[in-house]
């Protein structure tokens, strides 16, 4: 179990189960009335840490800033809820918790009697001696828990303990569902070079030889008689043709980038919630009658 000196060590830490899985963040440390040693720790559990669960620290071990408990996460999750133990655990509450965790009541490792006081919020240690303000608050709390059976305006009595009121409160768990953003995958752009054949048509032209014969006229007679009478002669003409000339250049054609868009949908969430039911037993041999609002 942990000592009073170790409470500061786990302040703001987490409680983990016997397998090392996180149960929740540490809330408050409760001390035994007689020994003053840590006896219970509250752990914030449930969705968004809205519930506090009591766990005995008899066999707990301090692991850095964390508190390792000898119970599974599921065991702690189903533990009885104590809703009105802001500063003190009464006998009935502690008996119920001891029974759930399989421990014998009144045989704690500290030798205490099972009544425990809270020590600060978030696991911080206060002075071991209660100051006068705490004492007065304890007295007022004890006075609020007195048996009020028979007082004016109080009908009946509580069979489970001292009569504190003329009614009982029905509570139920509400499901608070939120969302968190998690990584589901990654996308990347990659550029690489490929080669492909491009075929295009280019208009071209070329020169061809043709023979042109002109009759002798007065206009060309002089050119015709400028040579010898009978001679051998050659005349040459140079031919030309166009051919395709290919050049390549690199030009930008587009910009490509990655972007994301949010697509909304719906997902069903199923979780068990508990609620209290109230029934009326008239004691006249009839079946117990349930309150019509208990649905």
Automatic annotation (TrEMBL):
GO terms for biological process: photosynthesis, light reaction. Residues 168-279 form the DUF2382 domain. Residues 110-183, 258-295 are annotated as: Disordered. Residues 10-74 form the PRC-barrel domain. Residues 131-150, 167-183, 286-295 have a biased composition (Basic and acidic residues). One of its GO terms (cellular component) is plasma membrane light-harvesting complex. It comes from the Bacteria. InterPro entries: Bac_photo_RC_H_C (IPR014747), DUF2382 (IPR019060), PRC-brl_dom (IPR027275), PRC_barrel-like_sf (IPR011033), Stress_Response_Assoc (IPR052967). This is Uncharacterized protein (TIGR02271 family). It comes from Allobranchiibius huperziae.
């Amino acid at each position: 179990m942990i000592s009073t000196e170790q409470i500061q060590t786990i302040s703001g830490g987490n409680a983990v189960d016997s397998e090392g899985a996180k149960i929740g963040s540490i809330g408050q440390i409760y001390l035994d009335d007689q020994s003053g040693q840590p006896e219970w720790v509250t752990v914030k559990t449930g969705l968004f840490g809205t519930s506090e669960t009591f766990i005995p620290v008899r066999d707990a071990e301090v692991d850095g800033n964390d508190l390792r408990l000898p119970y599974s996460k599921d065991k702690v999750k189903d533990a009885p809820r104590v809703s009105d133990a802001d500063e003190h655990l009464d006998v009935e509450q502690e008996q119920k918790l001891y029974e759930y965790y399989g421990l014998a009541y009144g045989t704690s490792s500290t030798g205490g009697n099972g009544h425990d006081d809270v020590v600060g919020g978030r696991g911080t240690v206060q002075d071991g001696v209660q100051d006068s303000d705490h004492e007065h608050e304890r007295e007022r709390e004890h006075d609020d828990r007195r048996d009020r059976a028979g007082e004016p305006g109080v009908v009946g009595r509580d069979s489970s303990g001292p009569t504190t009121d003329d009614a009982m409160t029905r509570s139920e768990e509400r499901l608070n569902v939120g969302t968190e953003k998690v990584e589901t995958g990654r996308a990347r752009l990659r550029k690489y070079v490929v080669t492909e054949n491009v075929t295009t048509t280019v208009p071209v032209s070329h020169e061809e030889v043709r023979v042109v014969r002109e009759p002798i006229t007065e206009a060309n007679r002089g050119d015709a008689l400028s040579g010898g009478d009978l001679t051998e002669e050659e005349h040459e003409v140079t031919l030309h043709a166009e051919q395709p000339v290919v050049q390549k250049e690199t030009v930008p054609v587009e910009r490509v980038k990655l972007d994301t868009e949010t697509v909304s949908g719906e997902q069903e969430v199923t979780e068990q919630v508990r609620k209290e039911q109230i029934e009326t037993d008239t004691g006249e041999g009839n079946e117990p009658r349930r309150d019509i609002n208990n649905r």
